[in-house]
Amino acid sequence: MSTDQNRRITPVILCGGSGTRLWPLSRKSFPKQFSKLTGEHSLFQSCAERLSGELFAAPLVLTNPDFRFVVTEQLLKVGIDPGPVLIEPEGRNTAPAILAAALYLQRHDPDAIMLVAPSDHVVPDVAGFHEAVREGLRVVADKGHLVTFGITPDRPETGYGYLDLSETPDGSGVAIPLTRFVEKPDASTAQDMLAKGNYLWNAGIFLFAVTDILRAFEAHAPDLIAPVKAAVDAAEADLGFLRLDPEGWSGVEDISIDYAVMEKTDALSVVPFAGGWSDLGSWEAVMRETEPDGQGMVTSGPATAIDCHDSLLRSEDNSLELVGIGLENTLVVAMPDAVLVADMSRAQDVKKAVAALKAKGAKQAESFARDHRPWGHFETLALSDRFQVKRIVVKPGAALSLQSHMHRSEHWIVVEGTARVTIDDTTQLVSENESVYIPLGAVHRMENPGKVPMVLIEVQTGTYLGEDDIIRYEDLYKRGQGAKG
Q: From CA 209, how far away is CA 21, in angstroms rounded?
């Protein structure tokens, strides 16, 4: 096809996943892409910044309902105006997500070029990556090919899939035809592929024109088109988000873009990239990207290493001092509610710990003590059968929903700022060191009318203290019923 190489690219950022290999820092309720793992910004923010500038238009983001406000808030914090945010009713893997984005763009910008990227990768050489994107853009314009980016390996990695190229890259960065995809190899096979030189890591980053990828879906995954199109056609606008229709989406197959399209098409080129890359798929990868010291040590937060070597010590709680003595090849990550200790060689097995915790019903498997909401966050300080104590932080201008509870009463003590509190027909201001009581069944709301965060301590008492004991009557964020709505 003929495509203007100067046309701005639409980044399509995928950030609905809930990875478990970086537990306890990454959990289903707040996964790794929104955390600050290697720098001042979250992985999602760094991805959005990397895909901004003269090459790029505003990003299109796909995420799930729980993270929609996190997405917009984190983008605005780094000065990026959110583009369209598509809400997947539930995860269906990368092929349906990419197809939904392509169908959306076909309607709004049929000549668009899409750069699809996971939100949880690290790419240190941004300028070099942009050069690789320009090479990919040339291939899209000249050949109408789908383009993927292959990472020059620096070790026989068994945790990544590989791309088998038709020839060995010469270092120029020029695109090369793909011979085949290779699944994650064993150590011996990975060593052989590294020695041959024509195998690159599969980064899962793609560039293509909307018309070309839709043609590829029609040829290789036609059964996906009707249900995804139904979900896009019946999507509903919601506070600037676009909710894909749950009924249409329920009929969509769970399948990756590699299996659905990329492994079947002959029109695929690979742009080699040697500028460094990691999907941060394990704590070992995080350690590698954080640049260990002369003893091979990485410490983060209030952590102290004494006679330790080749280990990672990370404390995510300023009040929790983590001390390691005489450790070698050890991984220790401490959170307020969970601690991981493992041999570094078993870093890829952290997901087994999550499965074991889920099997025993431990909430730490998927949830944090701190729970994020569009109005702010809360964390549980104490919990028993009949009472719970929370610390609640409400952002300036934000408000909780107008709600009531069937099984608990609440006592609020403001410790920072001022709260505007509604209880049935009465509204009052509650300042620092003042408190208010909310009887069981009362219709109530808490707001922060000020310009600084408002902090209060909530004491709940009752027969049931679950987050799903909420009946919402009004909500600024148009959430439905249930714990998060």
A: 33
pLDDT tens digits, one per residue of 119-147: 999 999 999 999 999 999 999 999 999 99
Residues 76 and 169 placed together within one structural domain of the fold = yes
Q: Give 401-412 pLDDT, tens digit per residue.
A: 999 999 999 999
Asked if 297 and 287 count as a contact pair (C-beta separation under 8 A), the reply is no
Return the closest-CA partner of residue 477 out of 86, 66, 83: 66
Q: Would residue 173 count as lying in a domain?
A: yes
Say whether both 352 and 445 belong to one domain: no
Confidence (pLDDT) at 480: 73
Question: Would residue 462 count as lying in a domain?
Answer: yes
Which stretches of 234-313 are DSSP H helices?
246-250, 257, 283-289
Q: Using CB atoms within 10 A of its CB, is residue 333 exposed (0-12), middle (13-18) or buried (19+)?
A: buried
Does residue 229 surpass a pLDDT of 90? Answer: yes
Q: Is residue 484 part of a domain?
A: no
One domain for residues 438 and 466 = yes
Residues 40 and 167 in one domain: yes
pLDDT attached to residue 482: 66
Token representation of residue 267? 């029109």
What string of H, E and C letters represents the secondary structure of 322-339?
Answer: EEEECCECEEEEECCCCE
121, 278 contact by CB (below 8 A): yes
Whichever domain contains 457, its CATH number is 2.60.120.10
Residue range 275-324, pLDDT digits in tens: 889 998 899 999 999 889 999 999 999 999 999 999 999 999 999 999 99
The two tokens of residue 54 are 């003269």
Give the residues across from 237 on adjacent strands.
Answer: 242
Q: What type of residue is 30?
A: F
Rounded Cα distance, 32 and 18, in Å: 8
Decide: residue 77, CB within 10 A, 0-12 exposed, 13-18 middle, 19+ buried: exposed
CA distances from residue 257 to 95, 205, 224, 272 in whole angstroms, order as listed: 4, 11, 11, 20
Same domain, 214 and 235: yes
Decide if 203 contacts 174 (C-beta within 8 A).
Answer: no
Number of domains in the chain: 3
C-beta separation of 20 from 26 below 8 A: yes
Tell me the pLDDT band of 478, cut-offs 50, 70 and 90: confident
Q: Which residue shows structure tokens 């197809």?
A: 99
Beta-carbon count within 10 A of 291 CB: 8
**Residue 452 belongs to domain spanning:** 370-474
How far is the C-alpha of 375 from the C-alpha of 420, rounded, in Å?
Answer: 14
